[in-house]
Amino acid sequence: MELKQPGSDDLSHDIPVVRAMDRLTSAFPSEGTVHQVAVRAPAERAGEVRAALETLPSRTEGQELFAHDRTPAIRASADGSVHTVAVGTPHSPKSDGARESLELLRAWVPEAIAPVRGAEGAVGGKVAQGVDFTGHLKDRMPWAVGFVLLLTFVTTGAVFRSLAVALSAILLNLPSAAASFGVLVAVFQNTWAEDLLDFHSSGAVVAWLPLFLFVVLFGLSMDYHVFVVSRIREAAPDGANVRDAVRDGITRSAGVVTSAAIVMVAVFAVFGTLSTVEFKQLGVGLAAAILLDAVVIRVFVLPVLMTALGRWNRWPGNLTPARRSRNRGWAVRPTATGRP
């Protein structure tokens, strides 16, 4: 999955405003997307810093990734400790060309100021903001996913007093999130659905969307899961065996789960008709995942899994058959010999 921040590249170039921006950028490249280079050093090194920054135009000369309509001006703070220079690029902030120019500058600036003792440099701007934000999300997403999974496991295990049910909840909720990511890649990183959904593919998914989708979908999936498993659990203490309890629980909850899913799919599908690509991706991803979760996971996969587990649904509790109160544990119908 390719991630990036949304920008003007995601809009159709048939839009008058986008065409006007393209003409302005073509006529004045240095006034469009700009990298802000900043260097901090002791004030007595101001001359050395200025000399180092003056080498940047010579490095960008002849590079199509940078604008050449004017020479970048070096500015200094009042005390001479900070120097900045704006380096333009003819590419839009979220384009591949802008990101490549940022990578070059971030490699050149440390080399240029290396001879200056005590100097520190950085490259900022809109391009850097998008790249750094996307990188930060990629780095933090495993931690967020791990926290959600751990919290789900602990909470579900405590509520149902069953580690098997807690583990199955995680295993059953992950496929819907994975399917959502797959749909986003298939639809929005390719061009075959552009006319169908009226969007311009940038070959990527909005950077913040995967983490947002995962958290929301996991919460919705757990809502369905707890509701269905609770109905199954209620049937077990009434003397039903596991198979009968699963059949009874699914029968009692299927109508509610399916109706709720239909409403949510319809609501989120409306997002796919909006003009901005991030809302289109949000709506399509949520609608596809909820449809899969409610129709396939909860109606088919969950009953099969719980029936196959049988008395292990109570693990690590007492695996011997026992009739318990309505609000505690799992029970199976004892046979004439007292065994399940």
UniProtKB/TrEMBL annotation:
Residue intervals of the Membrane transport protein MMPL domain: 12-332
Keywords: Cell membrane, Membrane, Transmembrane, Transmembrane helix
Protein's membrane topology: Multi-pass membrane protein
UniProt xrefs under Pfam families: MMPL (PF03176)
UniProt GO cellular component terms: plasma membrane
UniProt-annotated location(s): Cell membrane
Keyword Transmembrane: yes
Residue intervals passing through the bilayer: 141-160, 167-188, 208-229, 250-271, 283-305
PANTHER family referenced in this protein's UniProt entry, alphabetically: MEMBRANE PROTEIN MJ1562-RELATED, MEMBRANE PROTEIN YDFJ
Protein name (database record): Membrane transport protein MMPL domain-containing protein
Organism field: Streptomyces cinereoruber
Lineage: Bacteria, Bacillati, Actinomycetota, Actinomycetes, Kitasatosporales
